[in-house]
Design a protein that fits this description.
Blueprint (H helix, E strand, L loop, with lengths): L2 H21 L4 H9 L2 E6 L36 H11 L8 H18 L3 H9 L1 E7 L12 E4 L12 H4 L3 H21 L8 H18 L5 E3 L14 H11 L7 H22 L3 E6 L17 H4 L9 E8 L3 H7 L5 E4 L3 H4 L2 H14 L4 E2 L13 H25 L5 H20 L6
Parallel strand pairs: 1-2, 2-3, 4-5, 5-6, 6-7, 7-8
Helix pairs in contact: 2-15, 3-15, 8-10, 9-10, 12-14, 14-15, 15-16
């Protein structure tokens, strides 16, 4: 056999070995420890308890439901076997099919528990998911979301867009919907603050709307603030002078549509102002990165590397940034070196829903080799409907995260990069201890 054939054979053997390694089950000892851990969920959209005929439309500032429908990927389709497993774990489902009669029986069991639990139902669900504390990304909290278990993360994109947004909304059908919602949210913030008319100057807007709103959120229990900016514009919030921003604000605050370039500079300035104020208040800044919903989402604008000038801004070193979803989709590799920055973290949310445990394990392996102390668990659970509601999504995402973590740690064990005690330590760090330290949650059990 010539050297080329020998080399090719070796390569095939290496690839086969790698494939077998990822396909194997996680180490039972590691998984036993992982399943004991009461997790802290860094990112979710839980619904509040509602009365008959009542709805909850505050679980997201920019919900995907009103958008033009797009096809779900494989992991999020109803035929994913993990949903059958969720029904068994949550509602005692005894079947291996999805017949209408059996699903109706399951829904009846779910409704019975919901009625029995009443306002305690959301906390009951967390208990079934193995989650101690969940960070609720919501416009406002509500009935059943006990602050002992659910911590508030409000949305602040609206603060970046105080002028006429018609031109921005016209860029895509999705953005037309989203900017309409942002305008309503900013009007709500002003109303709650008692600011009847738009302040005439940027300084007045900062002192009467932006800072008071952030302080109100902190007072009302916010543990962090959230930006969904990638749905509205690119994440490249470049340095902008206060003078230019103030001139644009004054020019258009009483009417007219700002030119995109001018308005972008104002947004850039306001983003850094909000981030600095959040740091002063001790509120970590959560930022959506990676894939998003809707058929018109600009994926290139969600690359976390676009945030580098923000993350390198010495004036923002007191602000902690959490890059949500870890660049879900094409940008997971970009996350790893960004974690080198002292005030940057990431989480697993969204990937736990859209990726298989095997694929997520590959991502986790890379991150763990860089900075395991910078990784946070997250589900991104949200309201669905019927047999595929937030409870099932929460179970599926939590299970995917735990399996993927077990696979990644097992691979690291087998390659001799970590010991078993270190594997158990890293599991606890990612599922709860990193969040406990970052947010100052105290030593929970």
């Amino acid at each position: 056999m010539d050297m080329k054939r020998i080399s090719f054979a070796i390569l095939l053997a290496m690839l086969a070995s790698s494939a077998c390694l990822w396909a194997q089950s996680p180490d039972p000892t590691v998984m036993a420890e992982i399943r004991k851990i009461r997790a802290i969920d860094n990112h979710s959209h839980p619904p509040r308890v509602v009365a008959a005929g009542e709805s909850d439309d505050e679980y997201d500032a920019l919900p995907c439901d009103p958008l033009e429908a797009t096809a779900p990927n494989t992991m999020t389709r109803p035929e994913n076997p993990q949903y059958l497993a969720a029904w068994r774990a949550l509602w005692g489902y005894q079947y291996n099919d999805r017949s209408d009669a059996h699903v109706r029986e399951m829904l009846a069991a779910k409704n019975k528990i919901r009625q029995e639990q009443g306002d305690h139902y959301p906390a009951w669900v967390l208990d079934q998911l193995g989650i101690e504390t969940e960070f609720a990304n919501r416009v406002a909290m509500g009935r059943g979301l006990d602050p002992a278990r659910f911590r508030w993360v409000p949305f602040d994109d609206a603060l970046l867009f105080p002028l006429n947004n018609d031109a921005l909304g016209a860029e895509t059908p999705d953005r037309k919907i989203f900017f309409g919602r942002e305008s309503m949210l900013l009007a709500r913030y002003r109303r709650e603050l008692g600011v009847a008319s738009t302040p005439a100057t940027l300084a007045g807007y900062e002192s009467r709307v932006v800072t008071p709103e952030l302080e109100r959120q902190k007072k009302d229990g916010a543990i962090a603030i959230k930006f969904e900016a990638a749905y509205l514009r690119s994440l490249d919030f470049e340095p902008a002078s206060e003078r230019d921003a103030a001139a644009t604000y004054a020019k258009y605050t009483h009417g007219g549509t700002p030119a995109k370039e001018e308005y972008t500079r104002l947004q850039d300035f306001l983003f850094r102002y909000v981030a600095a104020e959040a740091g002063r208040l001790g509120l970590p800044v959560h930022i959506h990165t990676g894939a998003g919903c809707g058929g018109y989402f600009y994926l290139t604008g969600s690359n976390p590397l676009l945030l580098e000038s923000v993350l390198n801004d010495a004036r923002l070193r007191k602000t902690t940034f959490v890059l949500l979803h870890g660049g879900s989709g094409p940008f997971t590799r970009e996350i790893s070196p960004l974690l080198m920055k002292p005030n940057v973290y990431t989480d697993l949310s969204e990937q736990t829903w859209m990726e298989s445990p095997q694929r997520l394990a590959e991502v986790l392996r890379d991150w763990i080799e860089w900075y395991p102390e910078k990784i946070l668990f997250g589900t991104d659970l949200y309201p669905g409907s019927g047999a595929y509601d937030w409870e099932e999504i929460g179970w599926q995402t939590s299970e995917t995260a735990r399996l993927a973590l077990g696979m990644a740690l097992t691979e690291l064990l087998h390659s001799g990069e970590i010991t078993l005690p270190r594997a158990n330590e890293i599991a606890r760090m990612i599922l709860r201890d990193n969040a406990r330290k970052l947010y100052g949650l105290g030593d929970q059990k």
